[in-house]
Amino acid sequence: MSDLPKNETPALRAVPEPEQAAPQRQPESLGAFPQLRMRRNRRANWVRRMVAENRVETDDLIWPIFVHDGDGRLPVASMPGIDRLGLDCLVDAVGSGSDLGLSAVAIFPYTDDALKTSDCREAINPDNLVCRAVRRIKQAFPDIGLICDVALDPYNADGHDGLVRDGEILNDETIELLCQQALAQAQAGCDVVAPSDMMDGRIGALREALDVKGFANVNIIAYAAKYASCFYGPFRDAVGSGSNLTGDKKTYQLDPANSDEALREVALDLQEGADMVMIKPGMPYLDIIRRIKDRFGVPTAAYQVSGEYAMIKAAAQNGWLDNDKAIMESLLSFKRAGADAVLTYAAPEIATLLKQR
């Protein structure tokens, strides 16, 4: 951290207004039936593919992976088909994803209760589970993009993303710890840090801390619009933070009723040095993705969160939905809304479907 007072952040860089696209000229007459038949461009597979406005590609996908400090695979009951991976099988799993064309993974740890403390000290341990996982993957697959979550909830006895004192989530003290956490991850070899904590001013502080320590090339994907959503339940099961959580996260995550506030959050994170922004959850917030992409024109990611994934899987298991079609349609909705990348637990499934096609 710098010598700035706790309540100050580095000077914010102005973000230029995106150029307004020239209005598209409409034909004088769009025609009418029977001369114009819209179904002609839908009559065959080849023409539907040719005129498709949006496509899902493997390059669009980021695969979130849960890791545990042990051997083998541990199923996550609330996320059908998803396991916590032990370090013994992690590299092989990433290799299988790489063979399918996946080029980026995000690592999330399941932390033993014995390591969860009120000061979250395990988050900054340079030999913690995440750092060891990063080193293993990077050694085996140096070209795979490695993304690390920056937040304290997996290590916090209170289950919150920030330090807690007398029931209050501490902003500035949390940022100091987040900077140390990000530096430990960068030293282990991660390519991207992704702060999901929603503390005010953390992007500028992280950017400065990384730059000062020689990690100017480490990207920051800011969870700029992370909502206080009910769709995170299975994720909290997977990382083991749900049972520890006291209260809720409404004092730092966005109110689901608000969209203008999301634009302000994105603007601030970009001013502070974010390279990309994230919207979380995904499908319930497609309007937010569209507004952000239209307003700022920056690389924008969406997180298809655990609850979204679990709903599709549960419906498919009951025969209410076609799993493959529902998964692909959901991804197309993100692309249509303007997302450049999507974090999804179904990434290997989607990559397999794309490869088959």
From TrEMBL:
<dbReference type="GO" id="GO:0005829">
    <property type="term" value="C:cytosol"/>
</dbReference>
<feature type="compositionally biased region" description="Low complexity">
    <location>
        <begin position="13"/>
        <end position="28"/>
    </location>
</feature>
<feature type="active site" description="Schiff-base intermediate with substrate">
    <location>
        <position position="280"/>
    </location>
</feature>
<dbReference type="GO" id="GO:0004655">
    <property type="term" value="F:porphobilinogen synthase activity"/>
</dbReference>
<keyword id="KW-0350">Heme biosynthesis</keyword>
<dbReference type="InterPro" id="IPR013785">
    <property type="entry name" value="Aldolase_TIM"/>
</dbReference>
<comment type="subunit">
    <text>Homooctamer.</text>
</comment>
<keyword id="KW-0479">Metal-binding</keyword>
<dbReference type="InterPro" id="IPR030656">
    <property type="entry name" value="ALAD_AS"/>
</dbReference>
<dbReference type="GO" id="GO:0006783">
    <property type="term" value="P:heme biosynthetic process"/>
</dbReference>
<keyword id="KW-0460">Magnesium</keyword>
<dbReference type="Pfam" id="PF00490">
    <property type="entry name" value="ALAD"/>
</dbReference>
<comment type="pathway">
    <text>Porphyrin-containing compound metabolism; protoporphyrin-IX biosynthesis; coproporphyrinogen-III from 5-aminolevulinate: step 1/4.</text>
</comment>
<keyword id="KW-0627">Porphyrin biosynthesis</keyword>
<feature type="active site" description="Schiff-base intermediate with substrate">
    <location>
        <position position="226"/>
    </location>
</feature>
<dbReference type="GO" id="GO:0008270">
    <property type="term" value="F:zinc ion binding"/>
</dbReference>
<comment type="similarity">
    <text>Belongs to the ALAD family.</text>
</comment>
<protein>
    <recommendedName>
        <fullName>Delta-aminolevulinic acid dehydratase</fullName>
        <ecNumber>4.2.1.24</ecNumber>
    </recommendedName>
</protein>
<keyword id="KW-0456">Lyase</keyword>
<dbReference type="InterPro" id="IPR001731">
    <property type="entry name" value="ALAD"/>
</dbReference>
<feature type="region of interest" description="Disordered">
    <location>
        <begin position="1"/>
        <end position="34"/>
    </location>
</feature>
<feature type="binding site">
    <location>
        <position position="265"/>
    </location>
    <ligand>
        <name>Mg(2+)</name>
    </ligand>
</feature>
